[in-house]
Write a structure and sequence with these properties.
Layout: E1 2-3, E2 6-7, E3 21-22, E4 29-30, E5 32-36, E6 41-44, E7 53-57, E8 63-70, E9 73-77, E10 83-87, E11 91-92, E12 96-99, E13 108-111, E14 120-124, E15 129-136, E16 139-144, E17 147-152, E18 156-157, E19 164-165
Length: 166
């Protein structure tokens, strides 16, 4: 891929945890999930400050997927599929996720524990943001403002299928 006059090889082509390669700069897995560290993150069309700002994220904690690395820049993708380049220091290793229901208007149950027979403590809308505390490959402990519980991992964007998060 040509980005700002520089040939950039996208690291890894698989989109599941453990199936990609490692970043040429960080040595961390690519792809991988991270979150935005700042309330203002410029997303650029290429990996340098001379590239145009395509849009600005204004919410710290949003999950993004790192899909490539070039020097101190990371190519990211968000939960809606938008892609661009951000400076590495604007990203955090803290894991977060966004609720993604099967159908757009469905509410996703948040359970007291990892048993679907347990009490439903909340029903979450599409796009609700929260912190991933842990995932066992099928369920994630998911906490946010005014909610805390367990959610089926497949209902979150921010953890790969079957991924374990500690």
């Amino acid at each position: 891929m040509l980005a700002g006059g520089v040939l950039v090889a996208l690291a890894g082509t698989a989109w599941g945890a453990g199936e990609g390669s490692t970043g040429s700069v960080s040595g961390l897995p690519v792809p991988r999930f991270v979150s935005l560290k700042s309330d203002r993150v410029n997303v650029r069309s290429g990996p340098n400050k001379d590239q145009e700002v395509r849009w600005v994220y204004t919410r710290a904690g949003m999950p993004v997927e790192v899909t490539a690395e070039f020097e101190n820049w990371r190519r990211i993708r968000d939960w809606e599929g938008a892609e661009g380049w951000v400076y590495h220091s604007l990203l955090s290793g803290r894991r977060s996720a966004v609720v993604v229901p099967t159908l757009k208007d469905d509410l996703v149950p948040l359970y007291e524990n990892t048993d679907v027979e347990s009490a439903v403590v909340a029903r979450l809308q599409s796009g609700v943001l929260g912190q991933l505390k842990s995932c066992n490959g099928a369920w994630c402990e998911f906490n946010g403002k005014n909610f805390s519980g367990w959610i089926k991992q497949e209902r979150l964007w921010g953890a790969y299928p079957n991924e374990k998060v500690d």
